[in-house]
Amino acid sequence: MTTNDCLFCRIRDGQIPSPKLFEDDVCFAIADIAPQAPTHLLILPKQHIASLDALKGDEEVQIVGHLLAVAARLARAHGFADNGYRAVINCNTHGGQTVFHLHVHLLGGRQMGWPPG
Ligand code: 5GP
Ligand code: ZN
Hints:
Blueprint: H1 7-12, E1 22-23, E2 27-31, E3 39-45, H2 57-78, E4 85-88, H3 92-95, E5 104-108
Antiparallel strand pairs: 1-2, 2-3, 3-5, 4-5
Bound molecules: guanosine-5'-monophosphate and zinc ion (ZN).
Zinc ion binds next to helix 1.
């Protein structure tokens, strides 16, 4: 896949509109188009990495840690960190991944259930 075929690369490049709610050198955050909680953000690396299963090398592993740290900061900024939230990475078919550009879902503002569907 070239990045031009990738929905989230196209959003990164501004070819598909989706306001960036947070951005730094490594990642950006957008609102999920079909929110599953009162707040449902996606935190994505700027670099195209297809999935958690496709991570290569220490540098890409460190990006995942960064995405999670940003998710925690955004949860705090949105005011639901103390009540709690969920940060999820769906991987491949059984994991429910539908867009193959790595992303962390940050869901907050309601009680979550377990086990997930
Ligand atoms: P996945 O299923 O791969 O874990 O998550 C993909 C997420 O991307 C889904 O929650 C879906 O609602 C969201 N999504 C799909 N298309 C778009 C879009 O065009 N814009 C935004 N902001 N989110 C999208
Ligand atoms: Zn991509």
